Amino acid sequence: MEVRAAVALDLVWIGLTVLAFLAFLASVASLVQGIRLRGGVRRGMRLALGAFLPSIVLILPVRGLDEGFGENVRALLSQAYPRYRLLVVADDSSDPAAARIETIARDFPRVPATKILADANPLGGKVNALRSALGHLVPEDEVAVFADSDIRPARDWLRQLVQPLADSTVGAATGFRWYVPPRPTFWSLVRAEWNAVSANVLFDPRRSFAWGGSCAVRTDRLNELRLAERWRGVLSDDLVLTQAVREAGLKIAYVPAALVPTYEGANRATCTEWCLRQMTMATLYLPVVRRYAIAAFSVFNGSILFGLACLALAAIWGVGYLIPAALFFAPLPASIAKASLRRRALFSGAPTVAAAWRVPAWRSAVAAMSVPWVMASGLLRTRTPTTIRWRGHTYDVSDPRQVHLVDGAGKPGGTS
Questions:
Q1: Full-model pTM
Q2: Using H for helix, E for strand and C for coil, what is the string for the chain?
C-alpha cells in the first residue's frame, strides 16, 4: 500500500510539473508577443508624417459634455493638417455639446465646422449618428475620420492616421486609446490596463480591429463596405466596421503615432460597467476576440490557482511541490513585464501620451495583475448577453443585428 501511495504521489508530482512547465511556456510566449508588439510599432513608425494628404471630413458624434470636453475639441480643431472640416452630429438640437463646439469653433476659423442632427431613430446613440453623417458627405471629402469626443489627440494625429490609406489594400486605418486618469486610483488603473490588453492583437491580421474613437476610411470605399446598411440597428460601430473590412478582403492598419489619450478616471462601478460592455460587444460582434481572451486568461488564472494548490501540497507532502508551484506562478512576473513592454512600445510612438503618464510602476503592476480576474468575471457574465448598459441607457441585444432601446431614461454623457 505504501509503495502504491508513493507511486501515486510521484505521478501527481510529475503531472503537475509537466502542466506547470506548459504554463511557463505560455508565459514565455506572452512575453514574445510583447516583443513583437514593440517591433510592430517600430515598423509602423516608418510611415510617420508621410506625404499622403487627402481632404478629410472629421466626424464627431456628441451627447453631453465629457470631462475636459473643451480641451478635447480644441485639440481636434487645431490639427496641423492642410484640408479638413469638422462634422458634428448630435441626437438633440438642444445638446450642450453642440452649442459648446459652435462657441469654440469661432477661435478656429481655418477649420469649417458644421452641426447636423442625427436621423430620427428609436435606437439613437453613436452608431445612428455616424450612419446619419454618411449622408452629409460631399465630393471633396476623400477620407472620413471617425473620432470620439473624449480623446485629446496631438497636433499631428490626423496626418499620422491617414497615411496607411495610401495603400490600396488597406480598408481602415486605426489609432488606439490610452486612459490617463487625472488621479491614478486603483480602479482607474485597472481600466487603463484592461484597455491596453487589446493592444496585444493590433498587429495580428486575424484578430486586429478598428477602434471607432480614432479611425479613418477612404470615402470611395464606403459603398464597398456597405456601412450605411451594416450600421442599421446595431450597437457597435467599430467591430461592425472591422467585419466589413475583413469581408472585403482588405487590411486594418494600426498607426502607432495615432495613439490618443483620454483624460478620465474611473471608480469601481464605472470600471466594471465599462469592462462588461466591452466584452459584451466582442461577444456580439467579434467573437474571435472573445475566444482569444478566454484562452489567454484561462491559462493565467488557472496557473495561479494550480500554484496555490501546489503550495498547499508542499506543506502536506513535501517541498518537492515548490518546483511546480514556482513554475505555475511564472505568469505573475510575466504579466508585469508584458504590461511594461506593451506600455513602452505604445508610448514610443506617441511622446505626448508618454509625457502625460505619471503613474508609479508598482501601481501599474498591481493593476496589471488584477486585470485577469476582472476579465474572468466579465467573461462568465457575458456568455449569452441579452441586455447591455451604455451611458445610462439599457439596450436589448438578443438580436445583435436588430438592437432595441429598453430604457430611454439616462444621464448625460459622451459618445465613447
A1: 0.90
A2: CHHHHHHHHHHHHHHHHHHHHHHHHHHHHHHHHHHHHHHHHHHHHHHCCCCCCCCEEEEEEECCCCCCHHHHHHHHHCCCCCCEEEEEEECCCCCHHHHHHHHHHCCCCCCCEEEEECCCCCCCHHHHHHHHHHCCCCCCCCEEEEECCCCCCCCCHHHHHHHHHHCCCEEEEEEEEEECCCCCCHHHHHHHHHHHHHHHHCCCCCCCCCCCCEEEEEHHHHHHHCHHHHCCCCCCCHHHHHHHHHHCCCEEEEEEEEEEEECCCCCHHHHHHHHHHHHHHHHHHCHHHHHHHHHHHHHHHHHHHHHHHHHHHHHHHCHHHHHHHHHHCCHHHHHHHHHHHHHHHHHHCCHHHHHHCCCCHHHHHHHHHHHHHHHHHHHHHCCCCCEEEECCEEEECCCCCCCEEEECCCCCCCCC
